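Annotated sample (chain length 290).
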Amino acid sequence: MSSNTENIDYENLPLRKLGKYFWLAWFTASMGQFVDAYDTLIIGAALLYLIPLWNLTAAETGLLAASAFIGVALGAVIFGPIADRMGRRLLYIYDLIFFVAFGALSAFVTNFWQLFIVRFLLGLGIGGDYSLSPTMVAEYAPARRRGFALASMNSFWGIGSVVGFLSAYGMAVAWGNTNPDFTWRFMLGSEAIWGLVIILLRMGVLESPRWASLQQQLGRRIKENASEVVRKMTGGKEASFDPGLAKKPSIRDLFANKMWITTIFLWVWWPVADIAFYGSNLYTPYITKG
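Output written by the structure step:
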């Protein structure tokens, strides 16, 4: 236990009784879903201009559309284990530097391979955020409200899609006919603005209290005290919480007892859902153009 106080059982607290700080952490994590959806729709819109300007083949068009997704797959695998060792907060803040830097660079590329590489590197940052943002929300939320806190994050995918569509449409109306080269560059470069805003907001988020508590169990020195983070989330009230026991994770845990049912379900459902989500965003510009 990270606190000896029994005044409040944090794990059973309703979300409405949590302080503003929890909602800041939840919001900044949810914005990771926002920028992911925004990016997927924006690249679909940009390709409408790139195909004729660069005389892209069907294969090149597909590779540019998929380049960030390749980076996402690798980024999630790379950033997750690093965050287990170094902590969530640092990477949670700075994984979006990939989004800012390579989003900005994508506005200045001059050929297919340059854009493919830049999009791939941008995807690495998104992949890192894919593993870190839900983890932060899961480790911040009270155990009995964790499902709702995580599920509600996904609403920001829809918001990001709408904002991405409206932004792309506005840019197309403003410059699409008169300056198509500037239009696609501004579309892709606009991602850097969103990434920078989120980085600035995330700088106010502290370390995951559960990760911090587990490090304290292992006798490691860390900057933030888990109890202080929990107190901040409750609006200054003392609370007890259960971070679990520090142990080496194993893939076997995913199949222990009845957990295998959830694991198999997610392995089947999530790829199918992603095909629908990403596919709809990528092709929305083509559909609306017609």
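Annotation: The two ends are 59 Å apart (CA to CA).
Annotation: The chain is about 70% helix and 0% strand.
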